[in-house]
Each structure stands twice: as C-alpha cells, then as structure tokens.
Amino acid sequence: MNLLNTSFERVSYGVQIKTSLLFECALGIAMITYPKLHNQLEMTRAELDELKIRLSSELTAELDYCQEHNTWKMLLQLLHVKDFSSPGEFYQFLKSLSESELKYYALPFVDIMQEKNRLAASKGDREAENDLVLACKGHVFFPQLIHFVCSSKHTELLNHFQALVDGWYNEVILPEKDWTSGVLERDVLEKRSISQLESPHKTVLKAAGIDYKPEQGIADVILIPHVAYRPWTIQADLPAAKVFYYPVSDSSLMKSTDPFEPPGQLVQKLKAIGDEKRLRILKLLVKKELTLKEVTVLVGMGKTTVHHHLTLLKAAGLVHVKGSVYKATGDSIKGIEKEIFTFLHKET
C-alpha cells in the first residue's frame, strides 16, 4: 500500500513559565498527604514530623480528608482555570461557579476524546461518569477521584477547599512568604533566561529533567517551580498542554553575593556523583538507556533505593527520563569540568 501523508506533525511546542504561592500551597498539601514519598524528599523525616506537629487540629483534619480523596489533584486542576493572586480571590472564584462547573474543573483531564464525558459527568450523567472511569481504569487513583467528585455535595467541596487552602496558606506559607516568593521568582527568571537561549525542548530538559518531545495535541508546556516537593517533578495533563511542576534549582534557593560561594547547580552535580552507587548507575546510563527495573537488576539494589538515586541524578541534571526509560545527559556531564574551572577562576 502506498501512503501520501498530508497530516501535520508537531515539531515543537510553546513554553510558559509561571509561578504562584497558591501552586506552592497546593503542592505542599500534595506532598504532606502522600506519605509513600516521605523517605525520598529533600525535607528530612524529622523536619516533616516537626511540620506536622505545628499544624492545627482543624488543618490536620482537612489534610486527612485530602489524603483519603486526593483533593490536592482537584486543587491543582482548579488553579489552572485562571491566575489568582490570593486565597481569597481563589475562593471567591469557586463560589461564583455553579455545581456542575466546579465539578467539571475538579474532574481530572483524561484526554481530549473524553471531554464530552467529563462535561456530562459533571452534570450528573452516570453513564458518562462510568465511561470516564473506564477510560482511566489503570490509573492509581483517578477512578476513585472521579466517583468522589461526581457524588460530592457542592457546599462540602467549597468548605473543604476553603479550609484546606486557608489553613495551609496561613500556617505554612505565610511564615516564610518573603523567602519562598524570592526563591520562586529567582527560579522563574533563571528559567526564562534559559528559554531565551535554548529551544523549548532543552528548556524543559534543563528545568524539569524531562526529555519531553513534541506530541500531537500538545501546543504548550507549562513549567511551574516549587520548593515543597523537591527533588520531585510532578507531571500533569491539561487540554492542549502538559504541565511540569519542577523543583527549583539550588542556585535559586541561595541569594548570595559571596564570590567564594559555588553555584548551587554545580554543588548538586558534585554531590550526585560523589556517591559510588550513583556514579556506578551513571556509568551504566552513559553506556545505554535503561528502565528502572533494568538498573535495579544490574546494580543489585532495591527498587526504592535505585529510584531514589535516579531522582537525585535527575535533579542534578545528569540524567533524564522519557516514559520509563532513563538516559545520561551528555551535555551536562561534559560541562562539569568547565563549570568547576569557571568557578575556581572567577574574579573575586
């Protein structure tokens, strides 16, 4: 059979880089309510325990509810509807929505083919709800989330969102608001500078550590920095857009004019390769691309331990992942010697 291909194949995408303390708020809530990753965070277990002790009983109750129903995902969906400057503005927007509108925005985006079912399910169509569940039956929590959203009462959702966001914002975000805002703003400026010099693909790779190639139906990639979930990059889907909530760089965390203070990204790279197990993993990935399972077999370590090492290598920009396959980032490896030389010989 002969084929004349007249279809359009996307060769690039746009990149949006934005930040908000409300996204930081939602990601902090997501982090604290996902205990499976608590041993793989930059925040130590002692720091996590100290944070939990400081939280009010009212906020703790809302977080328990959030953990049971994954309402953090609903929050992130809602925060993408428009830009919000404060929790009050966000809540006023939620109150302006009808019940079906609130549920539509809270329901997860599955794919463009399921948008009719998403809309119908938000209006109480049980058949559409079940079809939406079937479309994502392999997902770890989307089916339960969809049933929860569709069966929830409007006022209960509103009250939960207000109590959850206000509680975390006031008790966790506000005490360090100036510092957190400064870190996020510095990182956005850093990534926008990269985007002016690099292609969208390399911008995403350097920011999020993800080797994301253009795909049909995705016009934009939205990059949103965070502090709370370091060193993890969280991926999400929106209509016509892919979202990466990525960890801020070490250099963004530090605000220093000390010429003897090394760049945070360089320190992160050196720490990553300063461990013999990670260096061994990196050598394997220089030789060939490997899945997590393959790396686990080759190094003879547990899956969780290997994943932790890969996460640190990815956060340092030495490894990137596409789907389930990990690969060494050649440019970053070659550039370490140059970065060290530049720092050591920088005028003071």
Automatic annotation (TrEMBL):
Matching CDD domains, A to Z?
HTH_ARSR (cd00090)
Keyword field: DNA-binding, Transcription, Transcription regulation
Q: Which GO terms describe its molecular function?
A: DNA binding; DNA-binding transcription factor activity
Q: Where does the HTH arsR-type domain start and stop, copy by copy? A: 254-348
Q: Kindly indicate whether the keyword Transcription belongs to this entry.
A: yes
Q: What is this protein called?
A: HTH arsR-type domain-containing protein
One short Pfam name that applies is HTH_5
Q: Which InterPro entries match?
A: ArsR-like_HTH (IPR011991), HTH_ArsR_DNA-bd_dom (IPR001845), HTH_MetalResp_TranReg (IPR051081), WH-like_DNA-bd_sf (IPR036388), WH_DNA-bd_sf (IPR036390)
